[in-house]
Amino acid sequence: GEIIGVEALARWRHPTYGELGAGTLFNVAARSDYLVQLSDHIQRTAVAAAAAWPAALGRLRLAVNITAADIVRPGFASQFLRMVEESGFDRRRLTVEVTESGLIEDLNAAAYLLARLRQGGLRVAIDDFGTGYSSLAYLKALPLDYLKIDKRLCEDITGSPRDRIVVRSVIDMARSLGLTVIAEGVETEEQLGLLAQEGCNLYQGYLCSRPIETAALAELVSPRLPA
């Protein structure tokens, strides 16, 4: 039940269309050649917000997403590390997440970039694992700390015995590689219990909390802090 970290999620409260999520925002940005600018803005906003967190949140990790477009940007690693340094946020509390579907074909370039970020004190996660055909290649090639199991796989844990075996195999493989396993999209106690039985380390999802802002996060975390 202890909350040890959060993931930054992009939201825009549009005056006409209501709340727009990351999927909509990034799809529009990709079509209008503003993908890099949007990614950069969200990363800077999230890290700056975390740097200003109240003391009650001083132990939490922050996870932010980087995109395939970021990976191919010249000098991105140095720019990103400099941005974090200037914000005042402790690099050792920051995780960068790369979605499996967002990785570029040049795994050597991706591996080099992620290694640079890890050398700078950050941790690296592969997000939405299990959604694409190149999963195993990514695990072999990339320097990782966390494997985040895609929500659809986590939902399958309560399905047929075959479904559960698949999820168990993913968890066992990740742990054998020395990776911390995070389950995404956990919504029920049944899912959580079964994932824990199979050896999953951490979870995120509506069972803990819906997306919230800093003030609500501080209220959520405070009662759960260890004495």
Please tell me about this protein's structure.
This protein is an alpha/beta fold and 227 residues long. The protein has helices spanning 22-31, 35-51, 68-71, 76-87, 107-119, 135-141, 151-156, 161-176, 189-197, 214-221; strands spanning 5-7, 11-14, 18-21, 61-66, 94-99, 123-129, 146-149, 180-183, 202-203. The strands form 2 sheets. It has a 7-stranded parallel beta sheet with strand order 1-4-5-6-7-8-9. A two-stranded antiparallel sheet has the order 2-3. Helix 9 (189-197) links the parallel strand 8 and strand 9 (202-203). Helix 1 (22-31) runs antiparallel to helix 2 (35-51). The two termini are 14 Å apart. The mean pLDDT is 89.
Shape: globular
Helix content: 40-55%
Mean pLDDT metric: 89
As a percent range, the share of strand residues is 15-25%
Class by SSE composition: alpha/beta
Number of helices: 10
What is the radius of gyration computed over CA atoms, rounded to a whole number of angstroms? Answer: 18 Å
What secondary-structure arrangement, pairings included, does this model have?
Elements: E1 5-7, E2 11-14, E3 18-21, H1 22-31, H2 35-51, E4 61-66, H3 68-71, H4 76-87, E5 94-99, H5 107-119, E6 123-129, H6 135-141, E7 146-149, H7 151-156, H8 161-176, E8 180-183, H9 189-197, E9 202-203, H10 214-221
Parallel strand pairs: 1-4, 4-5, 5-6, 6-7, 7-8, 8-9
Antiparallel strand pairs: 2-3
Helix pairs in contact: 1-2, 4-5
